[in-house]
Design a protein that fits this description.
The protein is mostly helical and about 120 residues long. The protein has helices at about 30-40, 45-55, 55-70, 70-80, 85-110, 115-120; strands spanning about 5, 10. α3 (about 55-70) packs antiparallel against α5 and α4 (about 70-80) packs antiparallel against α5.
Amino acid sequence: MPEQTTFGRRVQAASGPRSRLAPETLTPAAKAFRAQIASDRAGSLSDFERWQRSQQGRLALAWLLRIALLSPGALSLAFHASWQVAIGLELAGLAATWWLRKERRRHRAEIVAWSDEQLAER
């Protein structure tokens, strides 16, 4: 069968998945090397990556607030809320927006001023 060309490039047949070697067929040196790679992967997180993971809760809260604050007036209208509740929702939205901006500013400043010593202080 002649080779197919697509826009001047050869199309290669996809190879099947590579078979994994069973652990009993490996030599002791290969088993030790496999274990070393696995341990290096587990402990290879940098300080910055650990710090980012520790901030995931705050970032999730910030995203939830962003979604909730899209339209407090529409929520009041949808639930037929009284004007007092609508005003309260708007004020809560303003306060949460203030906090959200402050939190984003703090997060950006921490990333810009990142150093490994900063994590040691905590």
